[in-house]
Specification:
Keywords: Signal. With 179 residues, the chain is an alpha+beta fold. The protein is built from three helices and eleven strands, in the order αβββββββββαββα. It has an eleven-stranded antiparallel beta sheet.
Length: 179
C-alpha cells in the first residue's frame, strides 16, 4: 500500500503538532517541511520529518478492511513514531476515523494477545511506554493480522483489520533513522 505525499504530510503535521504543544500551536508554527519517505515495506511505510524538537520518524499503515461496511468514516491510520530528542521510541497511536465514544476503550488483538488503547477525540493512545514495548514485541512476532475494535460517539462498534506484513522492517527502518 502506498501513501501520497499529502497523506504523509498530514501525519507529519500531526506528529509535529503533538511535539510542539497541540493544535493551539498551529498558528505559531512555520509551514511544515515535506516528510521524506524512508521506504515501503508491504503494508507499512516509513517516513521522517523535521519537527520543532528535532527529527521525527514514523511507520504507518491503513486498515486492509473496515467493518461494518457502509459507515461514513474518515480514513484510519495506525502509526508508530520515534522522537529522539524527547526520548520517545516506538510510540503507538491511531487515527480511528471518527470521534470515539467518551470513556470507551479501543481493543487490539494481535494473535490472541490483547491490548487496550484509550481514545481521545478521533485518536487512540496507549497509557504507558511499558505497554508500548510489549505491544511492539507482539506486533513484530505476529503471524496474523492485527484487529482493532472501537465504538463511535454514535454507538457504532467498528472493527478495523491491519496487515502486519512489513511492520518489522518499517519499525527497524525508523529505529535506524531516528536513534
Amino acid at each position: 500500500m502506498s501513501f501520497s505525499p499529502r497523506t504523509a504530510t498530514v501525519f507529519a503535521v500531526g506528529l509535529m503538532l503533538s511535539s510542539i504543544g497541540g493544535p493551539s500551536a498551529l498558528a505559531q508554527a512555520a509551514p511544515p517541511a515535506q516528510p521524506v519517505e524512508l521506504g515501503k515495506y508491504s503494508a507499512w511505510n516509513a517516513y521522517s520529518a523535521p519537527g520543532k524538537g528535532g527529527k521525527i520518524c514514523y511507520a504507518l499503515a491503513q486498515p486492509t478492511s473496515r467493518r461494518p461496511n457502509g459507515l461514513n468514516r474518515d480514513p484510519a491510520y495506525f502509526f508508530i513514531s520515534n522522537r529522539p530528542r524527547e526520548n520517545v521510541r516506538n510510540e503507538i497511536s491511531v487515527v480511528i476515523g471518527f470521534t470515539a465514544k467518551p470513556d470507551s476503550k479501543v481493543e487490539i488483538d494481535i494473535g490472541g494477545t490483547e491490548f487496550t488503547l484509550y481514545p481521545r477525540a478521533d485518536g487512540a493512545f496507549m497509557q504507558s511506554a511499558e505497554e508500548e514495548t510489549k505491544f511492539i514485541a507482539a506486533l513484530k512476532g505476529a503471524r496474523r493480522n492485527m484487529t482493532m475494535k472501537s465504538t463511535s460517539l454514535r454507538g457504532n462498534v467498528t472493527t478495523d483489520t491491519y496487515s502486519v506484513s512489513g511492520v518489522t522492517a518499517a519499525i527497524e527502518r525508523i529505529d535506524r533513522e531516528c536513534r
